[in-house]
Amino acid sequence: MDSKLALRVFVSHDAANSVWFVVESDIPGLNVEAPSLDALVEAVTDLAPDLIGDNMRDRDRASSEIAISIRHQLTVKPLQAA
Hints:
Blueprint: E1 4-14, E2 19-25, E3 33-34, H1 37-55, H2 57-61, E4 65-72
Parallel strand pairs: 1-4
Antiparallel strand pairs: 1-2, 2-3
């Protein structure tokens, strides 16, 4: 039995709307946005335990700790040849 559950959350920033948001997540039902990265991390930290408990009951019971990795995902355009 594994004592640590590792989950990933990918986030991005919408500069036009000045908001950070979850792009993709291993946590079912996690759909959140916030005005700053710190506020988004806080929201994920607050929401994750309930969402995991509600949507991942079997995996949650087998774990004594939950590790959440939050990664900022960037999209860039390729450099055009001169």
